[in-house]
Amino acid sequence: MKQLEETKPEWRPAIRQAMREAAEEESRQANSGAVSAFNYRWEHVTSVVTLAQKLARLVGADEEVVEAAAWLHDVAKSEGENHAETGAVFARQFLSKTDFPPQKIENVAQAIFDHVGLWRDSPLSNLESMVLWDADKLSKTGLTAAFHWTGMAISQEGEVTMADLITRRQHATWQAKTVISFHTEPARIAGEKRFMAFNRLWDELEAELNGDDLD
C-alpha cells in the first residue's frame, strides 16, 4: 500500500502566523522582552498587504506572489540591514513547506529581495517587485505613516511630546524622493496625495499648537 503523502498546510494562514510571530519578537527585542501595546511592524505589514493586493489587481500583477511577498517582506526585519536578503531566503524555505504554488516561490523571494530603499535612482524591472515596493512605501507616506510613527514613538519611548512628533516630521524629507520613485501609475497618484496630506496634517497641528488660528 502506498504511503499517503503528508498534507502541507495552507499558505495564507501559515505566512500570516509566521509574520505575526516575527512582529512580536521584534517588539520584544525593542521593549525589554515585552510586546508593546502598539505593534508597529504588524500594523505596517498588514497595511502593505492591503495596498499590495489592490495594486496587483489594478496593474495585472500575480496576486498570489504579491500577497505572499507582502506578508513576508519584513519577516526578518529584526536581522538588521540585510533583512531583505534574509527574508527572501526565509520565504523560499517556508513557502516550500506549504501548499503555495512551487513555481511561484522564486518570484516571491525576488520581490522581497527587491523591496528595500526609501527611494530609487533606477526603477525595478519585475512587476511584482514594483508592486511590493510601491505598497511598502505608500504605507510610509501620508496619514498612515503619521499615525504609525506616532504609535511607535509612544509605545517604545514612553513620554513623547507633541513638539517631539512635529520635529520627527521635519526629518522625513526623503518622502519627496519616494513620491517620484513610485513605479505604478496608481501608486504615483496616491503617493502625491498622501505626501500633501502628510505635510498638511503636521502644518495644521503646529499652527493649532502655536495658536495661529486665533490671529
Overview of this structure, please?
With 215 residues, the chain is mainly alpha-helical. The chain has one domain: Hypothetical protein af1432, CATH 1.10.3210. The chain is 65% helix and 0% strand. It has ten helices and no strands. It has helices spanning 11-30, 40-59, 63-72, 83-95, 105-114, 127-138, 143-157, 162-170, 175-179, 185-209. 35% of the residues are buried.
Give descriptors for this structure.
single chain; 215 residues; Hypothetical protein af1432; 10 helices; 0% strand; globular
- Quaternary assembly: single chain
Element order: H for helix, E for strand: HHHHHHHHHH
Low-confidence stretches: 1-5
CATH H level, superfamily name: Hypothetical protein af1432
CATH architecture: Orthogonal Bundle
As for the number of domains, it is 1
CATH class: Mainly Alpha
CA-based gyration radius: 19 Å
Q: Please, how many helices?
A: 10
Summary of the model, kept short:
By secondary structure, the chain is mainly alpha-helical.
